[in-house]
Design goal:
This protein is of the alpha/beta class. The protein contains 10 helices and 18 strands. The protein has 2 domains: 162 residues, Quinone Oxidoreductase, Chain A, domain 1 (Alpha-Beta Complex); 136 residues, NAD(P)-binding Rossmann-like Domain (Rossmann fold, 3-Layer(aba) Sandwich). 28% of the residues lie in helices and 26% in strands. Helix 1 packs across helix 10. The termini are close together.
Length: 342
């Protein structure tokens, strides 16, 4: 089979021929129909977030068709449409047993610690295969497994309550889901912060109040729009020290800033004025949980989460096309979400 692999940090992905993966007795083999290109993949290629061992096939947003099942698999069948939960965990350690499998002692992430979805086939434990309803496309199912799920987990970490206000810094794939999910969870007002006018236009369509950071200071603008109060919850989905600090600065008294974006640079905060003085919280949000995915799929079924405008481009499983999409994301100039369709 064909697979696009990271062979060295800072180097373009290379197409390689690989054997179709073997299927263990509790595994499924999935023929990949769509794989999302995530900004995290840019960080992996650049070395911002460590990837090991190399070489590795990138791609953690994956959907496809079950081609083969192991001898002990009963919950999915050949021909099922599935999305893949990207955390492969043991299920037995303290973190798995307490419902926090993203910290599994033996956990591996597809497309980071083991081969992922920039390929024609992948084998995963059957528990990682989540049934997709017929009305959900493979492209939308793939990004649901990461961008939507990560935003949903971050909003849950923020303890968002109905009637509160939210600022979303970054309106890419995660941000478009975050805007809609915040409204579905009862947010009164959602402010979408970005420098891309087209993305802000789409965020407005989903019910957000756009804040163009290329034309104003977003913190001052949020303060103005909220009557100098600030927002109850701010999600930082970009991974820049500047926007991570802005997310904290935009908070109201008792506000919660959730950092999701990845960076290897330090963030400087004014400990009293920006955190202690208003009893604000800065919360890290890492990945998402398997148990959150069925509810997300149901939200799509009920039209509370619309992904039709989020996947704005598809590309073939081709080294030039995929590296080009990663290059654009690295410049923060890419599409909302690009999906590979092998």
């Amino acid at each position: 089979m064909k697979a696009l692999r990271l062979v060295g940090i800072g180097k373009p992905l290379q197409m390689q021929e690989m054997p179709v993966p073997n299927v263990g007795e509790r595994d499924v083999l999935v023929r990949i129909k769509a794989a999302g290109i995530c900004h995290s993949d840019v960080h992996y290629r650049a070395g911002v977030s460590p990837v090991k061992p190399l070489p590795v096939t990138l791609g953690h947003e994956i959907a496809g068709i079950v081609e083969k099942v192991g001898s002990q698999v009963t919950r999915v069948q050949v021909g099922d449409r599935v999305g893949l939960h990207y955390l492969v965990t043991c299920g037995d350690c303290y973190y798995c047993s307490s419902g926090n499998e993203q910290f599994c002692d033996k956990g591996k992430m597809l497309g980071k610690h083991c081969d992922g979805g920039y390929a024609e086939y992948i084998a995963v434990p059957a528990r990682n295969a989540i049934p997709l309803p017929a009305e959900l496309s493979y492209e939308h199912g793939a990004i649901l497994m990461c961008s939507s799920a990560t935003s949903f987990h971050a909003l849950r970490k923020a303890r968002l309550k109905a009637g509160e206000t939210v600022a979303v810094f970054g309106t890419g794939g995660l941000g478009m889901s975050a805007v809609q999910l915040a409204r579905a969870m009862g947010a009164l007002d959602v402010y979408a912060v970005d420098i891309n006018a087209q993305k802000l236009k789409l965020a407005r369509k989903y019910g957000a109040i756009p804040v163009n950071a290329a034309q104003c200071d977003p913190v001052s603008e949020i303060q103005r729009l909220t009557g100098k109060r600030g927002v109850d919850v701010a999600l930082e989905l970009i991974g820049l020290p500047q926007t991570m600090r802005q997310a904290v600065q935009a908070l109201a008294v008792f506000g919660r800033a959730v950092w999701v974006g990845l960076t290897d640079q330090p963030v400087v905060l004014d400990s009293y004025r920006e955190v202690l003085g208003k009893e604000a919280e800065v919360i890290g949000s890492n990945d998402h949980l398997l148990q959150e995915l069925p509810l997300l799929i149901e939200l799509v079924r009920r039209d509370l989460l619309d992904l039709s405008g989020v996947v704005t481009r598809t590309v073939p499983l081709d080294a030039g096309a995929v590296n080009g999409a990663l290059d654009a994301l690295e410049r923060f100039s890419g599409e909302v979400r690009t999906a590979i369709t092998p």
